[in-house]
Design brief:
This protein has 499 residues and is α+β, with helices and mostly antiparallel strands. The protein folds into 3 domains: 128 residues, PAS domain (Beta-Lactamase); 106 residues, PAS domain (Beta-Lactamase); 194 residues, 2-Layer Sandwich (Heat Shock Protein 90), CATH 3.30.565.10. Strand 6 and strand 7 form a beta hairpin. The longest helix has 38 residues. The N terminus is likely disordered.
Length: 499
């Protein structure tokens, strides 16, 4: 018996008894290579030891290819290795190659009955598979030759009261149950929700699916207690919940529960939100043996709901501010334009400027707007070749975009009425910079227009510009009126403008 570690007289006696047994036996390694066999097995398959030892069994006996019989035998052997439990094949049709008296190699139909038993080492590891096989070809051929139900029943009685037929039915039932189990296991592993089975007081992982591994960021869970597999959750209350489910036998359901997980090696904790159920698993006597964990990662939904609530609150705030702005524009315009026609014209123009900036912000879902775009929208009516814009990309918060939109509208309106844009050759140059000390500087410079002088009294437009820069943007503005035209210089903190 090659590969068997035997020593001493007892070991030799066991080896001799094994080889002398009239029943066929053979040993396979866990990778399904021949490790040893007795003479009865060699006689049954018509081979020598040198033909078989160290060779994979399916390299030797696979004359029919990967047929249903080959698959049946392979799965039985693999189950023994995987489960450590004995497995039976009551009847299997498995042709083998034999050499006849004339030296020809032929394929002969054979039927077998086999039992596969795990052989363990001192640590309990499966190191061999012992196969006890019986050639039942003649019995099966006899059953197939008999014609008629009555004669077949007699043959079955001769064979032990339908024992073989019953064994076949049991084997078919087991095969069907195994197939159903495999389908259920596939469903378990592939379901989009996360699933795990925890057993015992230490909540040892028995199995989990791909979604659970993706959720926690690791796959080395099975066979490990929760406190070792996911130590970061111990102080978050989940272990207490599992203990309570085991103690009371009552399920627990959580919705949108935050859990911090170390999902990447060497990384920090990441917060995810889950809907989950802890369902008690009971033994035959009704006692709780474990907990079935099932749920879904709802992080995206929770964060989307929070964003939506924030947007609604922000929208309410903006609507109130917009209404207040409209009210202020109406009151101030009415004070400086007593005639209804002039009031309507000025009021409509200012509302249109506010609307232009709103359009910009709506396109970005109110996340902000670019300074260049705000300037362009408020001055494009006067011709892009007459208003030159020069500066870096500067993203603005919605509130800053609204304020600057009103400021540029007033400056452009005044330039069209009294300044550079009132003259055919007049131009407006707008330059802006972002200084290293964190301030934005914008210079509105008019050239080529009529000389301008400081107004004797400040109108609504001037007050709106100053109030917007100083109060809304937290900055300063200086208005210089000269023979070349108006120069308006404003500065404000970059964080007031940046999103």
């Amino acid at each position: 018996m090659k590969h068997l570690e035997l020593s001493g007289e007892l070991a030799r006696d066991i080896a001799l008894a094994f080889d002398a047994s009239p029943n066929p036996y053979m040993l396979l390694t866990p990778d399904l290579r021949y490790a040893g066999m007795n003479q009865a097995y060699l006689d049954a398959v018509g081979r020598t030891r040198d033909d078989l030892v160290d060779r994979p069994i399916f390299d030797v006996f696979d004359a029919a290819g990967e047929s249903a019989s080959v698959t049946q035998l392979r799965r039985s052997l693999e189950r023994v290795v995987a489960t450590g439990e004995r497995d039976h094949l009551a009847l299997i049709h498995y042709p083998i190659e034999i050499v006849d008296a004339e030296g020809r190699t032929l394929t002969e139909d054979r039927w077998w009955s086999a039992t596969h038993t795990p052989v363990r080492n001192a640590t309990g590891e499966v190191v061999y598979i012992l196969q006890h096989t019986q050639d039942v070809t003649e019995l099966e051929r006899l059953r197939r030759r008999v014609e008629g139900d009555e004669d077949r029943s007699a043959v079955d009685s001769m064979m032990g009261g339908n024992v073989l037929a019953r064994a076949q039915h049991v084997q078919e039932d087991n095969r069907r149950l195994q197939s159903e189990r495999n389908r259920l296991l596939d469903i378990f592993l592939q379901t989009p929700g996360f699933i795990a089975v925890l057993t015992g007081p230490d909540h040892v992982f028995q199995m989990h699916n791909r979604a659970y591994a993706d959720l926690v960021g690791r796959d080395d869970l099975d066979g490990r207690p929760l406190r070792d597999a996911l130590p970061e959750v111990l102080d978050q209350g989940f272990l207490n919940l599992l203990d309570e489910v085991r103690r009371t036998g009552e399920a627990f359901q959580g919705r949108g529960v935050p859990v911090q997980l170390a999902r990447s090696r060497g990384g920090g904790l990441e917060t995810v939100y889950v809907d989950f159920v802890y369902q008690p698993l009971r033994d035959g006597d009704g006692s709780v043996a474990g907990v079935f964990v099932q749920g879904h990662d709802v992080t995206d939904a929770v964060l989307a709901d929070r964003r939506q609530r924030l947007m609604i609150d922000e929208l309410n705030h903006r609507v109130k501010n917009t209404l207040a702005t409209v009210q202020s524009i109406a009151m101030q315009t009415a004070r400086t334009n007593v005639e209804p026609e002039r009031f309507a014209e000025s009021f409509q123009a200012r509302l249109l400027a506010l609307s232009h900036t709103h359009d910009l912000l709506t396109r970005s879902h109110w996340e902000g707007a670019q300074l260049h775009d705000v300037l362009e929208h408020e001055t494009e009516a006067h011709g892009r070749q007459r208003v030159m814009l020069n500066g870096p990309a500067v993203p603005l918060q919605p509130s800053a975009a609204l304020s600057l939109g009103m400021i540029f509208h007033e400056l452009a309106t005044n330039a069209a009425k009294y300044g550079a844009l009132h003259a055919p050759q007049g131009r407006v140059l707008v330059d802006w910079t972002h200084s290293p000390d964190g301030w934005l500087a914008i210079v509105w410079r008019e050239t080529g227009g009529p000389p301008v002088i400081a107004p004797e009294r400040r109108g609504f437009g001037s007050r709106l510009i100053e109030r917007s820069v100083r109060h809304d943007l937290g900055g300063e503005i200086e208005m210089n009126y000269g023979t070349e035209g108006l120069v308006a210089s404003m500065t404000f903190p970059a964080e007031m403008g940046r999103s």
